[in-house]
Amino acid sequence: MSDFVILLLILFLIICLILTVVGFVFYTGLFSEVVIRTGSPPVKNITIAYKFRKGSYKASGAAFTESCSIGPKLSSVGVFYDDPNQTQADQCRYVVGSILCENEEKPDEELQRLYEKFGYKVISFPEVTCAVTSSFPNRCTLSPVCGAYRVYPELQQYIKERSLNAYPFLEICKGDLIHYMCPLENQKDFCVPELLEKKTSEETVEHKDAEVTESAAGEDATRRVSVLVGPSEPEQKSSPVIQEVVEESRDMVEASVPLMESSQPSLGEEEGQSEDGDQGGKGSSESVGSGSSFEELDMEVEEEKEEKKNEVEEEDHNGQQKPVMGETIGNREE
């Protein structure tokens, strides 16, 4: 066999491989047109057996495989509650399960017990009249993966452009189609109890954190006030370190008392000396004041004598007496 023939065989095999890959891609629906519309959803009220999970949506394939292995003839369903573009991958919440019945039908009791045996729970979703919907071919095991990469970005863009309140994202594998729907009403009816419990616990934790923060702020303020003003008696009793410091300060004060008492006599003597000096100064001032007062009295007596002489002379001259002046003079002599 010549080299030319070998080269032709290699080229033929490469072309066949390329055609096979392209054909498989078209078969999976990767290049299918994605049509998004708003209207009545493809399913009515449904009852599902589910498991609540938290983590990356990429790991949901194992959950779909588990639910399909229990009920291979049932349609599988997934409900995704968080946007992976805004939420961390390990914090995304979703449920995966199988549809037990639709509309007014009742679930098979044996099948329901089988799912419950494997840890699944049962819940019913109501019928909605308006939702954002789309579909994708379900032809092989890779169809859900291709549909996720093709449909979800288109759904998010459609909802964002029209400012719709569509939540959550439901993915239902039914027959040869994968239905995608986002309810525009009664969104809370599509939330499982585990999701509500998680929200309540998170709110409780946030509330407790807020209370702890407020109490810590109050304690900090109290400590600042105690530093400025001084601790209260209960705080002094409750803290042994503060008691030791207070006792040491008291011992130091008691030890300093004798020294202060010994220094008091000298101070008393100085004070006595100062007081004696003050008294001596006062006595000298009083003596000076008394001397001046005696001189004034002598002058007054001399003036009275002169006045008396003048009055006597006037009486002799006029023959009249002034009893009033005499009484006053007598009172002064007394």
Automatic annotation (TrEMBL):
Entry keywords, A to Z: Membrane, Transmembrane, Transmembrane helix
Regions of compositional bias (Acidic residues) in chain numbering: 268-278, 295-305
Keyword ATP-binding: no
Biased segments, Basic and acidic residues type: 201-211
Domain of life: Eukaryota
Coiled-coil boundaries: none
Any Gene Ontology biological process: reticulophagy
TM region positions: 6-27
Low complexity bias locations: 284-293
Region spans: Disordered: 201-223, 259-334
Gene Ontology CC terms: autophagosome membrane; endoplasmic reticulum membrane; nucleus; replication fork
Gene3D superfamilies in alphabetical order: Regulatory factor, effector binding domain
InterPro entries per record: Reg_factor_effector_dom_sf
Protein name, per record: Testis expressed 264, ER-phagy receptor a
